């Protein structure tokens, strides 16, 4: 793949889609629910994904599209070049707050993450990485390697779903111990931004029990580019085709977190 060419194209489409969302942020939304009452989708999620699918297909007919809202292909493996697209990551924030959401695109070749782009649309902040060439925030390089920081001085992003009765994925006790050990926790409601914040050093880790490939595809490329470690909650390699738990942290604390605190059921 002509990585630089594809990156430039992808970046310009992300900026164009982001501007369209910003320009229409006060337009009425058609809000539908998907798998449950809290799982929202709007016409803007759908239009944005369709925009990317159309652009990708007309420019790169041999590439496949793996997207959340169904405009892509039926992707079950990562052979060849696959664009993993989340048109709006943080739809609930988009609906309730009109901010704190992102466009997220990861481009993988034969399973290897080569390009990651996360765009905080309302803040106009663009996080990018091309594998092996460093990560950037609005064109400014992020540190090459995140510094070590002990867990006791770390802030993690965690969502609270592990507290719920129906949480059958992880032992709550381990997460309680983690929360006690950490300096503090946050919860932003956009997995892509949470990855970007770890890469930027605003957060030291992000642990969550259930994400889809489009939530993590770009974030993994960007965070790994600054030396962060991204795995499933048990430390195994993260799936880019199925739902998975996720542990994404600075390198020095990753082992400690997956071995000492996250006990998947
Ligand atoms: C969601 C967000 C949220 C995470 C959910 C995701 P969406 O993505 O990333 O932070 O906790 O699991 O589904 O649906 O807004 O694209
Ligand atoms: Ca969604
Ligand atoms: Ca998402
Ligand atoms: Ca989404």
TrEMBL record:
It comes from Salimicrobium halophilum. Mg(2+) binds at residues 68, 86, 88-89, 215. It is an enzyme of class 3 (hydrolase). One of its GO terms (molecular function) is metal ion binding. Keywords: Hydrolase, Magnesium, Metal-binding. This is inositol-phosphate phosphatase. SUPFAM superfamilies: Carbohydrate phosphatase. The keyword Translocase does not apply. Its EC number is 3.1.3.25. Its cofactor is Mg(2+). It catalyses: a myo-inositol phosphate + H2O = myo-inositol + phosphate. GO terms for biological process: inositol metabolic process; phosphatidylinositol phosphate biosynthetic process; signal transduction.
């Amino acid at each position: 793949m002509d990585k630089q060419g594809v990156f430039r194209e992808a970046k310009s489409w992300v900026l164009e889609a982001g501007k369209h969302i910003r320009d229409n942020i006060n337009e009425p939304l058609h809000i539908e629910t998907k798998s449950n009452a809290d799982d929202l989708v709007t016409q803007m999620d759908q239009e944005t994904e369709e925009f990317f699918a159309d652009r990708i297909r007309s420019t790169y007919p041999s590439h496949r599209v793996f997207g959340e809202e169904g405009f892509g292909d039926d992707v079950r493996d990562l052979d060849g070049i696959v664009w993993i697209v989340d048109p709006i990551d943080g739809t609930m924030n988009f609906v309730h707050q009109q901010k704190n959401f992102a466009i997220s695109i990861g481009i993988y070749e034969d399973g290897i993450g080569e390009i990651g782009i996360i765009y905080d649309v309302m803040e106009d902040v663009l996080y990018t990485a091309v594998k092996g060439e460093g990560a950037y925030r609005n064109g400014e390089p992020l540190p090459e390697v995140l510094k070590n920081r002990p867990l006791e001085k770390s802030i993690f992003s965690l969502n609270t779903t592990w507290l719920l009765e129906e949480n059958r994925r992880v032992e709550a006790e381990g997460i309680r111990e983690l929360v006690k050990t950490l300096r503090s926790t946050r919860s932003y409601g956009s997995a892509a931004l949470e990855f970007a914040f770890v890469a930027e050093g605003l957060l030291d880790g992000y642990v969550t029990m259930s994400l889809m490939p489009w939530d993590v595809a770009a974030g993994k490329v960007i965070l790994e580019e600054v030396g962060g470690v991204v795995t499933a909650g048990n430390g195994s390699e993260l799936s880019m085709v199925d739902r998975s738990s996720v542990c994404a942290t600075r390198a020095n604390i990753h082992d400690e977190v997956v071995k000492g605190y996250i006990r998947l059921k």
